[in-house]
Write a structure and sequence with these properties.
The chain is of the alpha+beta class. The protein is built from seven helices and eight strands. The protein has three domains: about 35 residues, no CATH class; about 90 residues, Arc Repressor Mutant, subunit A (Orthogonal Bundle), CATH 1.10.10; about 60 residues, 2-Layer Sandwich (Dna Ligase, domain 1). The protein has a three-stranded antiparallel beta sheet. It has a three-stranded mixed beta sheet with strand order 7-6-8, with no helix packed on it.
């Protein structure tokens, strides 16, 4: 899947005067083609999947491309709907199995928030982050806080506890939902 970008450049009078004997502006049209899927991520996928003795099929690569180029947390139905636009021949079960495979390969993370529905997010290229989840509209806000991470590590050290991973999810209402309900911004 390629996207085309057109770039129009207007050369300044001084540069143009140096290049030509006239001072008339020239408009140049340049075409750029950018592939949406990252070859590095596709190669990483191929390396990891072959390490498990599996094949990197065209359908799996299409699902990977859609998944990596989507934003935020998506459930299976949302990812399937995006995949079906690219290739309607790919079935729901294939998307489900590929997402499970991506999770096993460390390219995706599964999350279950308060609604209990499994959602997926890409893990490659993302640093550790925590979540604020709105109970009103379901919005998920990702955040990073170095002071919070330092505090958690300090607590673990104080209790001589070795942390392998952790997950922080804070549930409440976002500003939009609070303003709709007339709830004060200061109340919790």
């Amino acid at each position: 899947m390629c996207q085309r970008f057109l770039l129009f450049i207007k050369i300044s009078y001084h540069v143009l005067a140096a290049l030509t004997n006239e001072g008339k502006p020239i408009i140049m049209k340049l075409n750029f083609n950018f592939k949406r899927d990252s070859p590095i991520k596709t190669n990483l996928f191929k390396a990891r999947i072959s390490g498990k003795g599996l094949k990197a099929t065209k359908q799996r690569e299409e699902i990977l491309d859609v998944f990596l180029n989507s934003s935020g947390h998506k459930n299976l139905a949302q990812i399937y709907a995006q995949v079906a636009k690219v290739n309607p021949k790919i079935g729901y079960t294939t998307v489900y199995r590929t997402l499970k495979l991506l999770t096993r390969l460390g390219l995706a993370a599964q999350r279950k928030f308060a609604d209990g529905e499994t959602q997926y997010e890409p893990t490659e290229g993302k640093s550790h982050h925590d979540h604020l989840i709105c109970l009103g509209c379901g919005k998920i806000i990702e955040f990073e806080d170095e002071a919070l991470e330092t505090l958690q590590n300090g607590i673990a050290q104080r209790y001589r506890f070795k942390v392998f991973h952790h997950r922080m999810e804070l549930y409440g209402r976002c500003m939009d939902c609070r303003s709709k309900k007339g709830i004060s911004k200061k109340k919790r």
